[in-house]
């Protein structure tokens, strides 16, 4: 049985993440979507909220399991019995970052490989940062995220109001 780990912060999960996880599920027997659950600055949703959003996204997929974790990703991969870590690549800059991380993870745990899946073309622009910024500005994110995530974003920004400082508004408001 081939088990892989797909780790991330997922703040929030979006259709690019979901696409990578589903494609991994078509290639491997079991996929663990691992939500980094340590409290961090500038994170919109708590670890528990992110876990719940990710769990709902994969509720109908028997071979996709959602877990929370802290600490080293390779240690979690080893704990769940994963042979590899799956990562998604959108643009060239992703490759450079993922390449460095793969080398570091290989140094820490040589038995865990890294497998990179190229994102589908329609998701190349999509990042959690973009989703948060569009939602913070009241934009339509319905083509970026599932309906339950869109509702959570609207609710969060209604509570935070226009004076929120979690999401830096840098590029989309001009």
UniProtKB/TrEMBL annotation:
The keyword Glycosyltransferase does not apply. Keywords: ATP-binding, Coenzyme A biosynthesis, Cytoplasm, Magnesium, Nucleotide-binding, Nucleotidyltransferase, Transferase. It is found in: Cytoplasm. Its main location: cytoplasm. Pfam families: CTP_transf_like (PF01467). InterPro entries: Cyt_trans-like (IPR004821), PPAT (IPR001980), Rossmann-like_a/b/a_fold (IPR014729). One of its GO terms (cellular component) is cytoplasm. Residues 5-133 form the Cytidyltransferase-like domain. ATP binds at residues 9-10, 17, 88-90, 98, 123-129. It catalyses: (R)-4'-phosphopantetheine + ATP + H(+) = 3'-dephospho-CoA + diphosphate. It comes from the Bacteria. Homohexamer. This is Phosphopantetheine adenylyltransferase. It comes from Candidatus Brevifilum fermentans. The lineage of its organism: Bacteria, Bacillati, Chloroflexota, Anaerolineae, Anaerolineales. The gene is coaD.
């Amino acid at each position: 049985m081939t088990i892989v780990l797909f780790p991330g912060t997922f703040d929030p999960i979006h259709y690019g993440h979901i696409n990578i996880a589903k494609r991994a599920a078509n290639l491997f027997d079991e996929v663990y979507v691992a939500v980094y659950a340590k409290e961090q600055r500038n994170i919109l949703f708590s670890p528990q909220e992110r876990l719940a959003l990710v769990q709902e996204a994969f509720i109908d997929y028997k071979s996709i399991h959602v877990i929370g974790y802290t600490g080293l990703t390779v240690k979690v991969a080893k704990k769940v019995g994963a042979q590899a870590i799956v990562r998604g690549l959108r643009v060239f800059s992703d490759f450079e970052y993922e390449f460095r991380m793969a080398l570091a993870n290989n140094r820490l745990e040589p038995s865990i490989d890294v497998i990179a899946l190229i994102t589908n073309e329609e998701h190349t622009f999509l990042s959690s940062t973009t989703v948060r910024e569009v939602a913070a500005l009241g934009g339509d994110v319905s083509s970026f995220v599932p309906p339950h995530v869109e509702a959570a974003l609207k609710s969060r920004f209604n509570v935070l109001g226009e004076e929120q400082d979690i999401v830096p508004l840098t590029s989309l408001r001009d």
